[in-house]
Amino acid sequence: MSDGTIVSTIVDRVVRDRAARWLGRAGARLPTFAELAAPSRIPEAFRNALRSLDPDRPEPANLFRVHWYNDRLRTGLAATPCHLVLPPSLTGVRSPIVMQLGCFFPMIGAHKVLAAYGCLVPRLVTGRFDPSLHKAVWPSTGNYCRGGIAISRILDCRGVAVLPEGMSEERFEWLRTWAVQPDDIVRTPGSESNVKEIFDKCAELARDPANIVLNQFAEFGNYVAHYACTGPALAHVFETLRADRPGLKLASFVAASGSAGTLAAGDYLKDKFGARIVAAEASECPTLLRNGFGEHNIQGIGDKHVPFIHNVMNTDVVVGVSDRCTDALDLLFNSETGLSYLAGRRHIDPELLAGLTLIGLSGIANLVAAIKTAKHLELGDHDMILTVATDSAALYGSERRKFLAANYPDGFDGVSAAEIFGQHLLGAADNDVLELTHNERSRIFNLGYYTWVEQQGVALEAFEQRRAQGFWAELREAAPAWDMLIAEFNAVAGWEKGC
Ligand SMILES: Cc1ncc(COP(=O)(O)O)c(C=O)c1O
Hints:
Layout: H1 13-26, H2 33-37, H3 44-50, E1 83-86, H4 88-91, E2 97-101, H5 112-125, E3 135-139, H6 143-154, E4 158-164, H7 169-178, E5 185-188, H8 195-206, E6 211-213, H9 220-244, E7 249-256, H10 264-273, E8 276-282, H11 287-290, E9 317-321, H12 323-333, H13 336-344, H14 350-355, H15 361-376, E10 383-389, H16 397-407, H17 414-426, E11 433-435, H18 438-455, H19 460-464, H20 469-475, H21 478-493
Parallel strand pairs: 2-10, 3-4, 3-6, 4-5, 7-8, 7-10, 8-9
Antiparallel strand pairs: 1-2, 9-11
Helix pairs in contact: 1-21, 5-6, 5-9, 6-7, 9-10, 12-15, 12-16, 12-17
The protein binds pyridoxal-5'-phosphate.
């Protein structure tokens, strides 16, 4: 478990050298965070080699695609990260809502592969992970462990996915193809919000010193990777749109909290543009809103605890979104009936309609949270809201079929589509929206005590230090320090400087 320190110097040079040579033999050259933040910095030879490489093949060169700039074909680079601009005709609010798309990330079709890279690489380059001895254990509710398995596999490291048995069948199908051995997939009891069960399994696995648990909820590499890479990518999208619309302001950044890694991009956007940071969660599991708990189906978020890497004292608003709403909108966006309603009655642009399928369940939650935020804060047409879709609807076909069968046994028609649009988009109310005062922030921060100090054994001082913004400012310095270690690591692995 994290002791709250950020390791950015080499702890064991022998292990570091062994790991570097191991990766060198696997043909892996590690990209720096600076390269992943701005992929034009990736050496040309590596960029060119990608043109003929399938983004979903387990090849080390695909590490150079672990960024937001993959184009829609996922073979080349886009000038700005792929995004959708969601207009008032769809959202019912005047503020432009812009959604950056995570589905073009390689191997897993979700940006969580960046979080996995961010958690493993600092260990490798500081000599705290030896691929010849260690297994990387990736606890998650689905996408992070897939990212971890993908990263482990292309670096020729052993990886173990730990996830609840109730997650979508598509996630398990993917894992069966990518895991080196069937027992590298560990199923824990429950579904989305059963993270304690995952932690218990990890504690059991950690008794074997060969297992290194990379807990995304507590590894600061997750925070740093998103601050260093996701933040600038979102800023680039905003600046590109503002160039065409002077006067546009970045009012808010909205992200649902799973590990809270993505929310780190909010810290970047607040530093640069003063954007408010909005954390979304499932109304059925209102942990941040009301210290609450409960089951829900917004897969990937809302795990009944406050992640250790969540900079709670810098968060401005919490918004709850019901999974009834995300399941229904998922059906609207991914059915012929729904799309023809949106085209025929709502005159939504066909290109945007085609893009709606690129938004997974938690992305829909972000969209609705953005609408609720715009209503609550009475934002206008110059107040842009940025958000992300971590993955696409492709991962939820089985969930959609279940929802359809349970709710529309006699068929889903145009009237049902109109009801969904009216109720969940146009009619989204600003219930479950909480603007955080100092007291509210403190309440949420303090709630984390029970998970991290009492349950997981984190030292009180390590827990408390995260109240101060100075702690997070210092943490952000880790990215350039790790980049220097990555360059050194690549040199030991046998890569020439500049390659
Ligand atoms: C589909 C999906 N959405 C959202 C999230 C939440 O992102 P984060 O963990 O960065 O808070 C996750 C995390 O695994 C996810 O898988």
